[in-house]
């Protein structure tokens, strides 16, 4: 059976693992893009095409047909593991992610040599596997919604195979400014931009990223059809979030957390340990706060969720170590027998992170660069008593939340510490007023609207 609506993304809405008895068990897929899309697709007749990311996923694909264990039927592609590794780890997460988040230590990186070119060939093959699967799955005139930097080449490849289908591409990351995008080998820059230019609609999370894309396309390809470029901000669904955050597992976690923090004010951050999230500078800023404002010692606690991500890559493992070391250093410098200033947890514990966001007095969101950052939107919606949001000006969310958040330069540790002090000492009235405005902005464009607007743009 062919589908009238297709979503293509590296990650699917479901992933597989082995239980203790070696049986396959299905789990919800992780990440902001997946949760936004799952919530948007509820009730539609879409099919989701994704990659098998583990041995268990690969085994699940051998059942044949569509996988129906998740919220949306899934066609999971068993791409050769070596091709997958080159495309996902080496190109998507080590090159394209680094370019669009400006993460390179440029005196030494990147290095585009013959070994890198071999990885790039893997990215091309992986994109081709998606394009062929989509061409085989799509009904006549189907709408195909391609997601993210893993699949930049798919629109052009699919257009060649199936001129009848309508193609949208959406980038969930920032887009690099032209001078930084120019780090890429010239032919690769052209291939990426031609890949996207073949789509009927090219979407971004905020105007800043769409303008950067237009500037790159204009410089590299000579022109850009701006009528095909759209901005679709992604917000949160307050009902879903509040319902989930009042279930028993979250209430239990909340009671435990309350017992741990006592009557201290609570600063919270919830991120993957990810270079763009700037976890290290955030923790250093908390140390600076305690140094500059001794009056906060034994009166505040920083609850840090830093669950590991992309641990196949050494640079991520090293960064995880640096995050742990930063938290340890603050605890060593300021901790007492009765007070541990940083409570860090590296386990991906969703109920506990929801509980922390309900309890937070201050939410710290300080990425060096981020496509949107949904935590910045979820935190105010989840807050029981009104939270102050500290928000990096380099996030996509800044475009919508700047008026009500306390904004910060993510590189400026001293200023971040000063913002933390301002947030902790803010009076209840101002805090409540700011939080109400944050909630209104965060919920203005829920995921179903975000998705429906892109589908409408294809018509
Ligand atoms: O920000 C882009 C993005 O695709 C998010 O939507 C998602 O949370 C994250 O990256 C996932 O990264 P990975 O699939 O490598 O864990």
Protein described:
The strands form 3 sheets. A 7-stranded parallel beta sheet has the order 5-4-1-6-7-8-9, with helices on both faces. The protein has a 6-stranded parallel beta sheet with strand order 12-11-10-13-14-15, with helices on both faces. The chain has helices at residues 32-41, 55-61, 81-100, 114-137, 154-161, 178-181, 186-197, 207-221, 238-244, 248-261, 279-292, 314-334, 350-359, 375-382, 398-401, 413-424, 428-442, 447-458; strands at residues 3-8, 14-18, 24-28, 47-51, 74-77, 138-147, 166-170, 201-204, 229-231, 265-273, 300-308, 342-345, 362-365, 388-392, 406-408. The protein is globular, with a radius of gyration of 22 Å. Strand 4, helix 2 and strand 5 (74-77) form a beta-alpha-beta unit. It has 459 residues and is α/β, with parallel strands linked by helices. It contains 18 helices and 15 strands. It binds 6-O-phosphono-beta-D-fructofuranose (F6P). 6-O-phosphono-beta-D-fructofuranose binds at residues 11, 31-33, 93, 148, 172-173, 309-310, 371.
């Amino acid at each position: 059976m062919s589908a009238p609506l297709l979503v293509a993304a590296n990650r699917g809405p479901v992933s597989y693992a082995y239980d203790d008895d070696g049986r396959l068990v299905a789990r919800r897929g992780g990440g902001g893009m997946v949760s936004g899309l799952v919530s948007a697709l509820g009730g539609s007749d879409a099919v989701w095409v994704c990659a098998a990311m583990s041995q268990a996923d690969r085994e699940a694909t051998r059942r044949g047909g569509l996988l129906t264990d998740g919220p949306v039927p899934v066609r999971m592609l068993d791409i050769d593991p070596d091709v997958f590794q080159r495309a996902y780890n080496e190109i998507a997460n080590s090159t394209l992610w680094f370019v669009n988040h400006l993460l390179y230590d440029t005196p030494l990186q990147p290095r585009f040599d013959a070994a890198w070119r071999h990885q790039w060939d893997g990215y091309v093959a992986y994109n081709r596997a998606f394009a062929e699967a989509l061409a085989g799955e799509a009904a006549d005139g189907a709408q195909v919604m391609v997601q993210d930097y893993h699949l930049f080449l798919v629109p052009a490849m699919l257009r060649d195979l199936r001129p009848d289908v309508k193609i949208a591409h959406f980038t969930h990351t920032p887009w690099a400014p032209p001078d930084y995008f120019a780090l890429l080998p010239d032919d690769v820059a052209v291939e990426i931009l031609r890949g996207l230019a073949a789509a009927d609609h090219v979407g971004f999370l905020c105007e800043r990223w769409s303008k950067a894309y237009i500037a790159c396309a204009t410089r590299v390809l000579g022109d850009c059809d701006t009528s095909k470029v759209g901005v679709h901000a992604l917000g949160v669904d307050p009902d879903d979030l509040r319902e989930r955050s009042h279930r028993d597992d979250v209430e239990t976690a909340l009671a435990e957390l309350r017992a741990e923090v006592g009557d201290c004010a609570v600063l919270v951050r919830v991120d993957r340990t990810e270079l763009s999230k700037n976890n290290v500078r955030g923790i250093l800023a908390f140390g600076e706060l305690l140094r500059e404002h001794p009056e906060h010692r034994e009166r505040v606690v920083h609850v840090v969720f830093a669950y590991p991500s992309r641990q196949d890559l050494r640079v991520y493992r090293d960064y995880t170590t640096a995050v742990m070391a930063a938290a340890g250093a603050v605890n060593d410098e300021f901790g007492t027998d009765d007070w541990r200033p940083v409570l860090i947890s590296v386990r991906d514990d969703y109920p506990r992170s929801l509980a922390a966001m309900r309890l937070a007095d201050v939410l710290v969101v300080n990425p060096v660069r981020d496509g949107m950052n949904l935590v910045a939107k979820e935190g105010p919606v989840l807050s029981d008593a009104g939270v102050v949001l500290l928000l990096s000006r380099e996030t996509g969310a800044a475009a919508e939340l700047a008026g009500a958040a306390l904004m910060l330069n993510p590189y400026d540790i001293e200023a971040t510490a000063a913002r933390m002090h301002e947030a902790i000492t803010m009076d209840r009235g101002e805090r409540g007023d700011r939080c109400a405005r944050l909630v209104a902005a965060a919920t203005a464009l829920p995921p179903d609207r975000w998705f429906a607007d892109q589908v409408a743009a294809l018509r």
